[in-house]
Amino acid sequence: MLSIIIITVITYFIASKGLSTFFKNGINLFDFLFGTQWKPEHDTTPLFGAFPFIFGSFSVTILAVLLSTPLSVGAAIFMAEISPKWGAKFLQPVIELLIGIPSVVYGFIGLSIIVPFIRNTFGGMGFSLASGMIVLAIMILPTITSVSYDALKSLPSGLKDASYALGATRWQTIYRVLIPTALPNILTGIVLGMARAFGEALAVQMVIGNVQRLPSSILDSVSTLTSILTLEMSNTIAGTTYNNALWSMALILLLMSFVFIMIIRILGKGSKLNER
User: Per the count of CB atoms within 10 A, which of 16, 82, 90, 174 is most buried?
Assistant: First the structure.
């Protein structure tokens, strides 16, 4: 009951603040979601176009998942099916240790290593969508790897034995039998990684440049929903249109969290059906 009450109160508070932008302050929903100009303190006509931040959050998340997923699933397959037992016993604690590293540490690593590497190799300032993508990929790699490893290890041993009995090689067994069977749980790990990447604030904020515009390439600086919230929320007055617009961004983050949870539950039901 306490959990239900807390979730209900948080949802009501954020929704009431976020919806005030449209019902109380008169901001057009379409202009807010798809507008590209963010000038809340403009003297004549303040502009609240949040699309650059929404695009930044989705782009850095999707690119990070595309970069991290092959490495994570490959590491899980190596630990579960290829490496000796001592290799898995060594690698699994290392992977799990990466989960507990604070995000600010990842941000400092990105600031000290990745940003200068991008700047010296490809040009520009280094603070870019590419830097955020790499930092987030490293952050979500242990999450996807751990879930994928558990999914592969939980499969019945009879599946592998039956595949070998039919003359399949180890690689044929992995990509034709084991991965398809464990796919719902592997996808769950990927969605969990996406959820963490989408809601990450500090590490991304330190390396992406926080420029309020649409990027033309992955080497351009961008801003995300979380970074704009952390940078500007404390500089606004409660109840103003500017403040409510930021709460509307927080509402978008909350709704995306609900979407990720729904996807995970759907995938969980699919994995149970496969087990049956």
Answer: 174
CATH code at position 139: 1.10.3720.10
Nearest one of 187, 178, 181 to 147, comparing CA atoms: 187
Q: Count the Cβ atoms, other than its own, within 10 Å of residue 211.
A: 16
39: part of which helix (H) or strand (E)?
Answer: strand 38-39
Q: Is the pTM of this model over 0.90?
A: no
Per-residue model confidence as pLDDT tens for the chain (276 residues)? 999 999 999 999 999 988 988 888 888 888 889 988 888 876 677 888 889 999 999 999 999 999 999 999 999 999 888 888 777 788 888 887 888 888 888 989 999 999 999 999 888 888 889 999 999 999 999 999 989 998 888 888 888 888 888 888 888 888 888 888 888 889 988 998 888 888 887 888 889 988 888 888 888 889 898 888 888 887 888 888 888 889 999 999 999 988 888 888 887 776 554 555
